[in-house]
Fold:
Amino acid sequence: MDVSISDLIVHVDETLPHEEMAKLEEIVRADACVVSACTSHEAPHLLLVTYNPDCANSSHILGLVTRQGHHAELVGL
Structure:
């Protein structure tokens, strides 16, 4: 069984408190097509997302963030 996996980085424009960024991670991670979502302490405004491109695309992932009221854009890998 072959499963497609893609990665992307979402740049969140606002500086969010750690708790709010953790909540955003949870929201994105809860999507059925998302495999993982995380930030790092070195770059807390970047959200790294691994997802299945067979059921979602980068615009869908970005929408998960922007629908929470945050300004964000995709960063090329």
Notes: The chain has a mean pLDDT of 93. The CA atoms of residues 12 and 70 lie 7 Å apart. The helical segments are 18-29, 58-66.
